[in-house]
Model the fold of this input.
Amino acid sequence: MKLSKLVGVRFKEKPAFCVIDSHTYSLRGGYVKRVSNGIFSLYTPMKKVTQNIEKILREEMDGVDCQEVMFPVVLPGALWEESGRYESVGEELLRFKDRNDTPMVLGMTHEEAAVHLAREYGSTYANYPFAFYQIQTKYRDEARPRAGLIRVREFTMKDAYSFHTSQEDLEKYYDRMANAYDRIFERAGIPDVISVKSDSGMIGGSVSHEYMLLTDAGEDSIALCDDCGYSANMEAAETTVDNSGCTPAGELKKVYTPDCKTIEDVCAFLKSKVEESCKAVVYQINATDEYVVVFIRGDYEVNETKLVNYLHEEVHPAEITEESGLVAGFCGPYEQHGNCRIVYDKSLEGIENLCCGGNETNYHYTGLNIKRDIGDVEYVDVSKIRDGDICPCCGKKTIRISRGIEVGNIFQLGTKYSDSMKMTYTDEDGSSKTPIMGCYGIGVGRLAASIMEARHDDKGPIWPITVAPWKVHVCCMRRDDDACREAADKIYEELTNMGVEVIYDDRDVRAGVMFADADLLGVPVRVIVGPKALANGEIELCTRDKSVQLSVKKEDIIAETKKLMDSLYEEINSKVKSRI
Done:
C-alpha cells in the first residue's frame, strides 16, 4: 500500500471532545470517522486491525471445537418473546415493526438466535456437546456512547454459544474457553488483561467472568487483592466489614439535630464516628413505585447492581412524598412506619451503638442497638467494596480498587434460554431433558481501541505486530533523489513480493510530516531510506517504540527486516506457548 493513495486524513490537533488517548489517535490517525453518536465508519488502517483481530479470534475458536456460523442482525420480536427478554430488556434493545406490522428487533445479543439454530440438531443426546460462534454486527441503543470505539451503539462482536448435557461438561468447556481467551489477549499484544468475577446482568446465568484491561481510562471499577490474586468487578465483589472494637451498647436516646440532613453533618454535630452511623438510601421499584429503604453504614455506598439482584427488581432513586410516611434526611430503622420495604446492609452487623435518623424532622437517635431495639433482621450485602477493605478470599485488608476496560466476557447460562424457549433433547434413557448453555463474547472494535489505549506513546499507537495494519513502514526521505527513490521502491517491491504487508510513504513531504504520520499509523517495523545514510551504503531500521535502532548495510536490509519482524512475532508467541 502506498501512503499517497491511502484514503483518510491525519492531523496534529487533539479534538476537544476526546476524553481518552485511543479516541484521540483513532481520529488523528485516520482510523475512524464519526457518522452519528456511537456509530463510526472505519478507514483502511482500522479495518485491517480488526481483520487481524478477527483472524486470531477464528483460529482460537476453531481450536476449541467451536464452529463458525452467522445469525441475522434483524430478528423477529417473537423470538425474544420466547425468552421473555422482549419485555424485560430496557430501551437498549431497538424494537421496530416491519411493513406487515410484525414486531422486530436489532440483535444486541444472540442467545435467542443460538437456541433457534440449535433446537433440531440438539434434540438428541448423541449430538452433545457442541458449540458455534459468529463475528457479526450488533446494535445496542446505548444511552451514553463515549470514548470512540470503547462504548458505541453499533459494533462488531465475536459471540459464541455452547450446549451441554451436564453442568460438569459445561464447566470443562468454560475452562477451555477461558484458556482460549487468555491466548487471544496474549496474541493481540495485551497480556496484562485479567479475568474477574462479574455480575451476569441482563444476559443471565449463575457464573460469569469479565476480561479487564487495567487502565486509568477504564469506566469499570475492579476490586483486586495483590496478596492472593482475588479479582472481581465492583458490581460483584463481596463486601466484608469488620465491626469489632466498636463502642459498647448504650442507652437509646432521641436527640435534636437541627438542619443535619447528611450523615457527615450528623456525625460532626454529635461528635460521633461515621463508622458507627446508619444512613438511609431510598429507592423505588420501577414496576410498582414501591419504596425500598436501604440502611447502610454511614461511610459505605449502596451497590445498586447488588440491590437489584437481591430484589429481583429494577430500581431508581426515590422521590419522597408525604404519603410515603418517610421523612427525607431523617429516615431511620427504629419505629419506622413508612410504607416501604426495608433492607439492612451487612456493614451494620455487629455494631451495638449506632446513630441514625429519628423519623422526625431535625431529630436523630443515638445508642441504637438493632438486635435489642428492633429484633432479629436479615443482613444482606448491597454495599460497594472500597480501597483497604477485607479481601473475601484471603481475609486480609488488602483490597485495592483499579479501573479497567471490559474486553471480553464469558457466562455459564445454565438453562435460562433453553428452558424458556422449550429446547429439549432425548437422553440415553429416553427421558426428555433441557440442555445447559454457556456464552462467550469479545467486542472486536473495543478490543482494537483497548490495544491502542494500552500500547501508545505521546505520538500515537504502537501496534503489536500480530494486529498491526501493516508490518513494515518504508519511508523514502527524498523522492527527488534518484538513488533514494530507487532504493525505497526496491525494498517495497521485494517485501511485498515476499508477502509482507507494507505501507510505503512515497510522498514528497517534509521529514517532520512523514515521521508524524508514521507515528500515528503505529506500524511496528520502520525502514528509513535517506540520502546521507545511503551514501555510506546504509539504511536505517528501527521499531516504532524505538527499542531497536539499527544502521544496516543496503544489501542486508531485506534479511534484517525479516529478522526483526520474526523477533517481534516470537516475543508474543513465546508468551502464548507458556499458557499451553
